[in-house]
Write a structure and sequence with these properties.
The protein has about 130 residues and is an alpha+beta fold. It has three helices and nine strands; from the N terminus they run βαββββαβαβββ. Strands 1, 2, 3, 4, 5, 6, 7, 8 and 9 form a nine-stranded mixed beta sheet that branches. The structure holds cobalt (II) ion.
Length: about 130
Amino acid sequence: MLGRVNHIAIAVPDLAAATTSYRDTLGARVSQAEALPEHGVTVVFVELENTKVELLEPLGSDSPIAAFLAKNPAGGMHHICYEVADIVAAREDLVRSGARVLGSGEPKIGAHGKPVLFLHPKDFFGTLIELEQV
Ligand code: CO
């Protein structure tokens, strides 16, 4: 079912500081900050050779990462995104296996313009999993 790691997302309390750290301390290539109001985050993409890391800062009052940052004020790994070829087929297999899909269960268009779903972290060893159809 799973293909490549599409991205790893890290929630951060201060996007400018995190961007500086990745660019200057870790020597990574980083994008400009991009506000995604429909997703409640501002994001910076750290471009790596084999995948990317997304630094996420809350945007707006009902950001989906606000509760995570309240519990993890220094920031932390928020989710890992795996690519799948057919997101509806993947969902059907997962639901049949007893895994829980978050929200309505219907794929939404994610930050990259592709359909995504999120899987309950309690079903996968404490890690929030995003599936993205590529
Ligand atoms: Co993501």
